[in-house]
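Sanity check

After download, print the first record. It should look like this:
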Amino acid sequence: MVNKPDWLKTGSIERLWDTSFAHQIKQGAYNTAPVEAIVRSVSHHFRAKGFIKHDLKKLKFLEVGCGAGANLAWLAEQGIRISGIDISQEALSLCKKTLKDKGLEKNIEILIQASASNIPCPNEYFDGVIESCVFQHLPSELRIKAFSEVVRLLKPG
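Expected structure tokens:
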């Protein structure tokens, strides 16, 4: 039998990530730039679909594990309607500050504390879902649920 991580047994994953983000904020060591692979992948997808700037304003994207908000800010700067979830309230506070400081609040649809394996959003609501360095931290059974959530949330096509 595989031992479950302590945070999974105790339900303290929120506390773990809140502590991590509080430390990052104190040190000024949180991510302020979008993940290059996400920028490349999303940009390539836009070009492949033939999107032009005014088309992007119709799109809704979700970031699972939005952290400090750098990826959401980049998406919002493209004109996309953005939503984010994070298990950490500290991360969400920082994300809100990042978006406010950049004047991007008007692009926010949903910004809530939630688990990747149980996202309280409507079925087929998003045109795109991104994540970076979240699923790799989940035990197999939660990772499977998280991928199922992504499929549930994405619009067909």
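If your output differs, re-run the checksum step. Summary of this record's structure: The chain has one domain: 37-153.
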